[in-house]
Amino acid sequence: MNSAVRRAVAAAAVVAALGVTTACGGSSETDDAKKPAASEKTSAPAKPAEEGAKTLTAAELEKAVVATGDVKGYKVEKVGKSDLPPAESVPAKPAACQPLADMFMFSTQPTAKDRVVRTLMATDELDPKVTSLALLAHDSADAAEVMKGLRKASKICTAYEHVDYKYSGVKERPAPDAGDEAVSYDVKGVIDGDKVPMTFTVVRSGSTVVAFYTMNMLDSSKTDVPQVIVAAQLAKLGKTV
Questions:
Q1: 125-176: per-residue pLDDT in tens?
Q2: Three-state DSSP class for 235?
Q3: pLDDT digit string (tens) for 68-99?
Q4: C-alpha neighbours within 13 Å on the C-beta side of residue 157
Q5: Is there a domain that residue 32 lies in?
Q6: What is the CATH number of the domain that holds 69?
Q7: I need a labelling partner for 155 at 20 to 30 A (CA). Which of 70, 147, 182, 234 fits?
Q8: Is pTM beyond 0.85 here?
Q9: Is 90:33 a contact under the CB 8 Å cutoff?
Q10: Beta bridge pairs of residue 227
Q11: What is the count of structural domains for the chain?
């Protein structure tokens, strides 16, 4: 692995795995317009949350989350609970952006009953993208409320402050046609002076909120969450519930 890729992967992995908040610069850059793929949609009605949908236990979350071998071309690393950021929400300014600030830390309002987090990196050493994912256990109504908040915030927020850092470049993206409903958006960040755009995709499957985010320190135009990861995780979750 060349030094540039090693540096990018190492820095991104630390942020992705530990949920460390990074400063987001007020860049004037604009991303190239992306046409929605056939499997994507800019807006669609969510399936109503099924009352009584199973809320996964901690043990079931561990069973449902992907492991190395479940996603072709990726290795999966477990993030222990002691390494996770606090699940409790920390106020963001403006308050309308709170759902985005929370999700960066894989936390939600209402608070999840339990959560598991994994970091995925491609086995191809020349692929600098790092993806983190979390399974967040809720009851049906709370899961739907989380998605409602993210959808609204991704439409109206452009920048916010959280835990002494400033975030900008928030932009709604086409959401994948996955689960019962999905939301996707961009947030631009800075790590060690390098601009690092991140793409979030959050999917509700029953009462479970499945969150993904991908960062790429070498190519700002390629931060899409790999669909192979989304598909593999939702398929494994479906077998568990």
A1: 888 899 999 999 999 999 999 999 999 999 999 998 888 778 888 999 999 9
A2: helix
A3: 999 999 999 999 888 888 888 889 999 999 99
A4: 27
A5: no
A6: 3.40.1000.70
A7: 234
A8: no
A9: no
A10: none
A11: 1
